[in-house]
Specification:
2 copies of one chain form a homodimer. Chain A is α/β, with parallel strands linked by helices and 411 residues long. Helix content of chain A is 36%, strand content 27%. The first copy, chain A, has 2 domains: 172 residues, Carbamate kinase; 155 residues, VC0802-like (2-Layer Sandwich). Chain A has 13 helices and 18 strands. In chain A, strands 3-6-2-1-9-11-12-10 form an 8-stranded mixed β-sheet, sandwiched between helices. The first copy, chain A, has a 6-stranded antiparallel β-sheet with strand order 14-15-13-16-18-17. In chain A, helix 7 runs antiparallel to helix 8 and helix 9 runs antiparallel to helix 10. The two termini of chain A are 45 Å apart.
Chain lengths: 411, 411
């Protein structure tokens, strides 16, 4: 007898038949005596349909009204999901974010959850009901409808699990767990039984798009056991755990993440004076461009080369801004490259193991892959390279760190 | 400087372009200095789309969840309408029924409004905003979403106007007012400048489907001036007024209503004992069949003939029930006719004018139309006839009571 919060994304509830399949799944858990809170996204395609309506109406839609509009997507799903559960003879009650209520700040379209009043949900569970909650949405203190931004349904699931002190928050997706790397790139990629929150955060932010980063942060902060599993196949999925210090058997590296949506910009020959970094990056962030890696080299003639990476979509805009800045700073020139990719090795084990980075660089050198930038954190090492080497790099690292099913045999 | 509540139905907000056209209309009123509260239906087709989804899911959809589902329709419209108004430079704020809040009883799918808290709306109006409220929906005292049933947006409009003490509730539809009869049947049918609530009630319940009956009752009860006008054309529409006793110049007859969805059932030779009417009609109303006209004749041999009309859709079901009842009551036989129609003359003026019914019967007799049933109220006379005579009857009555543009000349 456990309490599970189960989150089903847009693909899992994309059609009437799929909603019915989810209801069958929920019924199995109920039949085993578990208490179930279901949180759902909008049916796949619905959010895009609504966004299209809004953009026909306004070039820049009013954020408040956009939230009123978008929140209808999950509201449709909770009603249909409740009907499907009722059809199977289950007691059920649905709630919108406002009804629960899921209290958020008032930042429309990317609100943050501040509090959840679980009294109604708790009473319904005690009454034997399955509770169905609209994901992605809440209301601010004045009752205005808010949304949490794309992927926010994961956050709703985790926040509900935290507030209800659930035994597990189960995120049902179209993949059956977290893999050592993308199985489309490395055939021998393996599903991980467990991964720590910190590793998952690094994996997620580096492009393994299974979970919304904020939901993982949230789960880590409130110590909610989080499990990623498939809506369509049976299986245990991957459990995302709080790191256990005693567990010395942890592998050094848990996975290889990568990201090809990167672009690199360099200002060459900037006078090396205090505050030059903020002079360069200030205008970039004012334009709402997110900067990822930052690198500064001291050159010989009291000038410096300053390099950073941005999302590839922001490359042209960042290049323009940087060209203006470089004239102001009397820099020598601006260089750009939008054909780069980032590959990272991630693992909490590397904290206690020296030489992990060296092993990575060796493996890449063996393949004659030139490393353009390096960035490290406690549990990851990222390198930037020409995009054309991406697959080769991922495969050789996956093999070097023996992550695959057959690697240990083949070596 | 007046306060208007304006209701726009599904056809008026059926496309992005139409919503924009409504916004332009609202802006004109704002530019003249009026305060405007807009209430809207779901975009035409949307409610049917949602109902189709629900009926794919459940044969008899859960009423509570049906309301959660259907209420998204108007929520989409308020968001889009608000965006359109904002585009024109107006300040605007949208509210769902729950947000206002429009408090209803807990009868899902046909809830009744109990109270409206206008504090937020009043504050927004004072702040110079146009307020856009979702029609058709509210919330019960526990915060469950409710809907008012089809056509309920009219009721929302009237209830808002009553609560806000608005100067007028304007119902925008696809017709430009209330006519003396259906212009498709009588070419010379005329738009009425004014009609009383009572007349409108009789016209509405008799098949002039411009306004939901409940909204007219509501408007009469709270003395809200109600105006029906076109979303698509300019014009004053028809004002539905509180009857003014001093206005002795009222025409005797305001309009001719008709209804072809009728069916007639007769039990012949029922023993004429006390309580026979309730024995016959009890089982009918238990089957949720609404009975319209009722007629009882005393026959010679201490038996009676009992006739009533029902909606044509209910004819078969009513016939079955009646056959069983007639066996129990040892009646002679049951007769039915589902090819009948009802035609009514309506007007507050007939109260003070004798001979109106006679004039009606004469006009019908002149055309050799046989009257099967007669029913009268203070302000209307209804007759049932074979359906084939419907158009002829309406035209001859329209002419006899000089309701048309050319009638006074042609006569």
């Amino acid at each position: 007898m456990a309490l599970y919060v189960q989150k089903y994304g847009g693909t899992s509830v994309g059609t009437i038949e799929r909603i019915q399949a989810v209801a069958e799944k929920v019924k199995k858990f109920r039949d085993q005596g578990h208490e179930i809170v279901v949180t759902v996204s909008a049916m796949s395609g619905e959010t895009n349909r609504l966004i299209a309506l809004a953009s026909e109406m306004q070039d820049v839609p009013s954020p408040r009204e956009m939230d009123v509009l978008l929140s209808t997507g999950e509201q449709v799903t909770i009603a249909l999901m409740s009907m499907a559960l009722e059809n199977l003879g289950l007691k059920v009650k649905s709630y919108t974010g406002s009804q629960v209520r899921i209290l958020t700040d008032n930042v429309h379209m990317k609100a943050r959850i501040e509090d959840i009043d679980v009294a109604k949900i708790r009473a319904d569970l005690d009454d034997g009901s399955v509770v169905v909650v609209a994901g992605f949405q809440g209301a601010d203190k004045d009752g205005n409808i808010t949304t949490l931004g794309r992927g926010g349904s994961d956050t709703t699931g985790v926040a509900l699990a935290a507030a209800l002190k659930a035994d597990e928050c189960q995120i049902y997706t179209d993949v059956d767990g977290v893999y050592t790397t993308d199985p489309r790139v490395v055939e021998g990629a393996q599903r991980l039984e467990e991964i720590t929150f910190e590793e998952m955060l690094e994996m997620a932010s580096l492009g393994s798009k299974i979970l919304q980063i904020r939901s993982v942060e949230f789960a880590g902060k409130y110590k909610v056991p989080l499990r990623v599993l498939s809506s369509f196949e049976e299986g245990p999925g991957t459990l995302i755990t709080i790191e256990d210090d005693e567990n010395v058997e942890k592998p050094v590296i848990s996975g290889i993440a990568f990201n090809r949506d990167e672009a690199k910009l360099t200002v060459m020959g900037v006078p090396d004076i205090p505050g030059v970094a903020s002079k360069i990056l200030g205008p970039i962030s004012e334009a709402n461009i997110e900067v990822d890696m930052i690198l500064q080299n001291i050159a010989e003639d009291q000038t410096t080369d300053f390099t950073f990476t941005v999302h590839r979509n922001d490359f042209d805009k960042a290049h323009q801004i940087l060209t203006r800045t470089s004239q102001l700073l009397k820099a020598r020139e601006v260089k750009g490259d939008n054909k780069i990719a980032k590959v990272s090795i991630v693992g909490v084990g590397m904290r206690s193991h020296a030489g992990v980075a060296t092993k990575m660089f060796d493996a890449l050198a063996d393949e004659n892959i030139n490393i353009q930038m390096i960035s490290t954190s406690e549990i990851k090492v990222s390198v930037v390279m020409a995009e054309k080497y991406l697959e080769l790099a991922v495969r050789s690292l996956h093999s070097a760190f023996e992550l695959g099913r057959n690697d240990s045999i083949s070596e």
